[in-house]
């Protein structure tokens, strides 16, 4: 089997290829490391490639298999890990200078579950600093490029994970989603991205941005692959006090069922229309019509408070992040600046934070500190929390009427690198559709539904399901995937960008 064939396969196909003895885990891993070597100078999906660690994990899988041991469904399958999750002994930067040189002494629960399942972790992927951003341009280590068009952004904050999957550097990746950072990159790279129910996947070892919103989840090129990964990482974890102690929703069975007959689907009136790119709107409408053709019952649903989700989020997130990032004090982790023996601890801390944090991070720390200060707390943070409750109620009311809600994932396709860096508000507007589900904690996903006619770039359909009904996302995604294969063919639905272009650069 050629190395190219191996990198084009889905995770499920790779697992089958390895279990039937047509390729070893070492061969599969080496093929992906070679692919990274060939294209990542152009894509810059990875901040750190752990070739040695990956090959040794692959050798261990091959050794276990050779003894006849029955291995899990993703044993030997390579994966890219967002650099916000800790992995013992491997650099974890969160896209920030302030953590440069830090090697965590422990594995995140997600990481240890992947290792226990025999998944081969190739390395750590690029991201906006501490996961704040929608383009991966806020990384201290330079942007990631969208494999569909290298002059464009791959989304953010998890642009590295989505780009790695779209560029065939890995069949699977882990992202994290606080306001859309799994779903928005998935939409603009033509890949599948799932934000599980809050509490569905452990946050232990996920470096916190906003603890009440953060959630790790799968990135993949197919819906079944995402489900396989979901089942490996999800489930109760006593190390995370917000982890839900309930069975993992049957996501793999739902992905295999791929059936929406009789499902009630609500199109959210407040998340569409005005200001959306026409091609995004068009592909979204076509996907909804297709779901109706497949037997779903489509109705329009109003969620009136979603209009206030963005402002509420941009008070709650900075508030939580200003508190979470206070621990980067020049004493405990990574960078320390100006410690020449003459300066006070406060001066060293100030110099370190000044040098170590980027502009967006500082902006949010300042905003959050202001919103939490006495005298303003009720007017800003308190008010935002009330809006959050109203959004939860909107979801509850909507899910009385329908099984899932849908909208476009993003108002536009991938924009050009540099286009929005000087306009934070324009950048924040990318997350209009994704933020309500973070505020309410319910499950949500983005699935590829075609290319926009005006620019030939991927469009995503956003699906939202009730808390712990993550399986419904997979049912919709897999039904669409199967139906769209005829229209778009495997290239789009396998997340395939113009690969030759990627390789040439
Ligand atoms: N783009 C959003 C933000 O900047 C979402 C970030 C995320 O989900 N981590 O906050």
Commentary on this structure:
The protein has one domain: Amidase signature (AS) domain (Amidase signature (AS) enzymes, Alpha-Beta Complex). It is built from 18 helices and eleven strands. The protein has helices at 3-8, 11-19, 25-43, 51-66, 109-116, 159-166, 183-189, 223-233, 251-257, 278-293, 309-324, 345-356, 359-372, 378-401, 424-428, 435-440, 470-493, 499-504; strands at residues 46-49, 78-82, 120-125, 172-176, 192-195, 216-220, 264-268, 297-301, 404-408, 443-451, 458-465. It is globular and about 65 Å long. The model has no long low-confidence stretch (mean pLDDT 95). Glutamine (GLN) is lined by residues 131-134, 157, 177-181, 209, 317, 431. Glutamine is lined by residues 131-134, 157, 177-181, 209, 317, 431.
Helices and strands in order:
Elements: H1 3-8, H2 11-19, H3 25-43, E1 46-49, H4 51-66, E2 78-82, H5 109-116, E3 120-125, H6 159-166, E4 172-176, H7 183-189, E5 192-195, E6 216-220, H8 223-233, H9 251-257, E7 264-268, H10 278-293, E8 297-301, H11 309-324, H12 345-356, H13 359-372, H14 378-401, E9 404-408, H15 424-428, H16 435-440, E10 443-451, E11 458-465, H17 470-493, H18 499-504
Parallel strand pairs: 2-3, 2-4, 7-8, 7-9
Antiparallel strand pairs: 1-3, 4-6, 5-6, 5-10, 9-11, 10-11
Helix pairs in contact: 3-4, 8-9, 9-17, 11-13, 11-14
Glutamine (GLN) binds at residues 131-134, 157, 177-181, 209, 317, 431.
């Amino acid at each position: 089997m050629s190395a190219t064939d191996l990198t084009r396969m889905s995770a499920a196909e790779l697992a089958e290829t390895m279990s039937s003895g047509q390729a070893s885990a070492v061969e599969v891993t080496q093929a992906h490391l070679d692919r990274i070597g060939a294209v990542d100078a152009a894509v810059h999906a990875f901040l750190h490639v752990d070739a040695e660690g990956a090959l040794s994990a692959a050798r261990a899988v091959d050794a276990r298999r050779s003894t006849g041991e029955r291995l899990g469904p993703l044993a030997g399958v390579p994966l890219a890990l967002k650099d916000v999750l800790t992995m013992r002994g491997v650099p974890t930067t969160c896209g920030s200078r302030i953590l440069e040189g830090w090697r965590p002494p422990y594995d995140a629960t997600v990481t240890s579950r992947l290792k226990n399942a025999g998944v081969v972790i190739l390395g750590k992927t690029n991201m906006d600093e501490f996961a704040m951003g929608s383009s991966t341009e806020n990384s201290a280590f330079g942007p990631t490029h969208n494999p569909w068009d290298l002059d464009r952004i791959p989304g953010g904050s998890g642009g590295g994970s989505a780009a790695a999957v779209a560029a065939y550097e890995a069949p699977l990746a882990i992202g994290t989603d606080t306001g859309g950072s799994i779903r928005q990159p998935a939409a603009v790279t033509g890949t599948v991205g799932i934000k599980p129910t809050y509490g569905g996947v452990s946050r232990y070892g996920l470096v916190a941005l906003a603890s009440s919103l953060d959630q790790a989840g799968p990135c993949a090129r197919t819906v079944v692959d995402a489900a396989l990964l979901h089942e490996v990482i999800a489930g109760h974890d006593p190390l995370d006090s917000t982890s839900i102690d309930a069975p993992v929703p049957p996501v793999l069975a739902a992905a295999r069922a791929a059936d929406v007959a009789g499902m009630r689907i609500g199109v959210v009136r407040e998340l569409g229309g005005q200001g959306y790119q026409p091609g995004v709107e068009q592909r979204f409408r076509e996907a909804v019509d297709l779901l109706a053709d497949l037997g779903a019952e489509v109705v329009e649903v109003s969620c009136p408070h979603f209009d206030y989700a963005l402002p509420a989020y941009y008070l709650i997130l900075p508030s939580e992040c200003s508190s979470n990032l206070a621990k980067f004090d020049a004493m405990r982790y990574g960078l320390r600046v100006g410690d020449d023996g003459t300066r006070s601890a406060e001066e060293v801390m100030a110099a370190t934070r000044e040098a170590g944090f980027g502009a967006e991070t500082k902006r949010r720390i300042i905003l959050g500190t202001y919103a939490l200060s006495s005298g303003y707390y009720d007017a800003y943070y308190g008010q935002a929390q009330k809006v959050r409750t109203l959004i939860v109620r909107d979801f509850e009311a909507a899910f009385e009427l329908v099984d899932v809600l849908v909208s476009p994932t993003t108002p536009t396709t991938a924009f050009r690198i540099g286009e929005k860096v000087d306009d934070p508000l324009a950048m924040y507007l990318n997350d209009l559709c994704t933020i309500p589900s973070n505020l309410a904690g319910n499950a949500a996903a983005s699935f590829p539904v075609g290319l926009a006619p005006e620019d030939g770039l991927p469009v995503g359909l956003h699906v939202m399901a009730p808390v712990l009904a993550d399986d419904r996302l997979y049912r919709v995604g897999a039904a669409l995937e199967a139906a769209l294969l005829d229209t778009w063919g495997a290239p789009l639905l396998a997340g395939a960008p113009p690969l030759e272009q990627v390789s040439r650069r």
